[in-house]
Design goal:
about 20% helix; about 160 residues; 3 helices; alpha+beta; four-stranded mixed beta sheet
């Protein structure tokens, strides 16, 4: 069974470790998301085989003893076959049961660069922000707040920068 480090409300590790999804009151955990964009501004999406729901490029729980950066690199490798060099999250969001870190990268990939387990991921596509909103309205996208999607699209230009035209 997967185990998680427990964090307090201030995002400090408490030293406790729990079985996956066994958090108590006042206990939190860390989740990572990797958003891979191409130079045309499209985010790589994966379609989950079990649910048929579209999701961000790669996502997963941070395991006990693992840093967020290590987890983001692991999920990119496990879910997409990508070896990424990541520094720090592009942004973080507090959620009811913990903290979600988002790593935004821009890579122009060919389909042959991405290796997926088709029992887990049934399809890939590149999508702009409007397409993701449309998927979400149709109930075809993971339950991620629209402001988080907007932030990911904005952060593809770099931390603390604005798009220049």
């Amino acid at each position: 069974m997967e185990r998680w480090d427990v964090y307090d409300a201030g995002r400090n590790r408490t030293g406790e470790v729990v079985d996956r999804k066994a958090l108590g009151l006042g206990q939190y955990h860390l989740v990572v998301h990797v958003c891979v964009f191409n130079s045309r501004g499209e985010m790589l999406l994966q379609k989950r085989a079990k649910t048929g729901i579209w999701d961000l490029s790669a996502s997963g729980d941070v395991r006990a003893g693992e840093s967020g950066k290590e987890a983001a690199q692991r999920v990119a490798r496990e879910q997409l076959g990508l070896t990424l060099t990541l520094e720090r999250p592009s942004f973080s969001v507090s959620v009811p049961d913990g903290f979600d870190d988002y790593y935004v990268v821009v890579l122009d990939l060919k389909r042959s660069d991405v290796m997926v387990d088709e029992t887990v991921i049934s399809a890939l596509c590149g999508a702009n922000e409007k397409t993701i909103r449309d998927f979400s309205r149709a109930g075809m996208f993971a339950p991620i707040h629209s402001c988080v999607i907007k932030m990911a699209f904005g952060m593809r230009h770099g931390i603390g920068t604005e798009e220049t035209k």
